[in-house]
Design goal:
mainly alpha; 69% helix; phosphate transport; MetI-like_sf; Phosphate_transprt_permease
Length: 363
């Protein structure tokens, strides 16, 4: 008699193990949180400076460090360490920019607050002829600045542009390298050296003690030429070679290609560079003090005797005030404020030229 077989029992299946999935996303700071945090710390720095008479440098540094620390800590808690590092670097760059703006804001605030005292119609319509104390103006200095700077631009722009065209389009060999070297050297020379050069040059022909407006223009042109050369050279290098090759493939001469193709394409950048070069030299004082001098009367002839310029006028009024000194100091600050407005206007003109004359591209 056979014994019945007992079927094998299956082992109980283990319960499925559920693994917790790691979070693939983190929270995110509100979109405007960094900007509002920066604004809050800047306001705190201004309050410390204006209300509590705190040191302005210390106020700016405290605002920068506080903003960086708050944004980094907030981001690390909400967004995680990886995003916090990115926030930290961004906050450091932003804080450095804010700290770098402090001297500019301080200068603009001081010039604006003190220059408005004499920023009136009399300041622009009168000269200093016969004025001892209060009154007078800087009409002669304003016109002298425009004349001297205009002649400097008239000298510098053709020389600088032709030099840049030669270096980019024609220059090869030792001569090109020598011109590039001397342009680099001229870029870094002190402005007083340019004034001494112009004075020594004109002294050979007119004798010692000569002062003329054209001398100041020559001195400023020494400072302008390397800036014009460099800016024009960079703009010409940005013109695609395909445009030159297409023009030459049609048997167009090289000079006509440069005049009709290359220069119009780079016109916006060249005009911007020239405008910025003018803004660079219009406020120079040392070379004009040596070459042009100062006068209290109107003189619109740059080839005859001394002329007045705004920079030298401001320096003279501030360095040698009379009694009482307040009218002299007010005129000095007003002249400095006028120079700042002229430079700002030139920079705006440069941006406008760059926008209007830039090559049109299809969207």
């Amino acid at each position: 008699m056979s014994t019945p077989t007992i079927p094998p029992q299956r082992a109980p299946e283990p319960a499925p193990v559920t693994l917790e999935k790691p979070a693939l996303t983190h929270g995110s700071l509100p979109r405007r949180a960094p900007a509002l945090t920066l604004l809050a710390w800047v306001g705190l720095g201004l309050a410390l400076y204006l209300v509590l008479d705190f040191n302005p440098v210390a106020s700016g540094l405290l605002a920068a460090v506080g903003y960086t620390a708050v944004v980094h800590g907030w981001s690390r808690r909400v967004e995680g360490p990886r995003k916090a590092k990115d926030r930290l670097v961004t906050a450091v760059v932003t804080s450095s920019f804010v700290v770098a703006l402090l001297p500019l804001v301080s200068v603009l605030g001081a010039v604006l607050s003190r220059g408005l005292e004499r920023f009136d119609a009399d300041f622009f319509n009168n000269s200093m002829r016969g004025v001892v104390g209060e009154g007078g103006g800087a009409h002669h200095a304003l016109m002298g600045t425009l004349i001297v700077t205009g002649l400097a631009a008239l000298i510098s722009v053709p020389i600088g542009m032709l030099t840049a065209i030669y270096l980019v389009e024609y220059g090869r060999g030792r001569l090109s390298r020598a011109i590039t070297f001397f342009v680099d050297v001229m870029t870094g020379i002190p402005s007083i050296v340019a004034g001494l050069f112009a004075y020594a040059l004109f002294e050979l022909f007119f004798g010692a003690g000569v002062r003329m407006g054209i001398m100041g223009s020559v001195a400023l042109s020494v400072l302008m030429i390397p800036v014009v050369v460099r800016s024009t050279e960079e703009m010409l290098k940005l013109v695609p070679n395909e445009l030159r090759e297409a023009s030459m493939a049609l048997a167009v001469p090289k000079w006509r290609t440069v005049v009709r193709v290359v220069l119009p394409t780079a016109l916006a950048g060249i005009a911007t560079g020239v405008t910025l070069a003018i803004a660079r030299v219009i406020g120079e004082t040392a070379p004009l003090l040596v070459t042009v001098g100062i006068t209290s009367s109107d003189n619109f002839n740059p080839f005859d005797d001394r002329m007045a310029t705004l920079s030298v006028f401001s320096y003279n009024q501030y360095a040698t005030p009379g009694i009482p000194p307040e009218p002299f100091l007010d005129r000095a600050w007003a002249a400095a404020f006028t120079l700042i407005l002229i430079v700002m206007a030139l920079n705006l003109v440069a941006r406008l030229i760059s926008r209007l004359f830039a090559p049109k591209t299809r969207a």
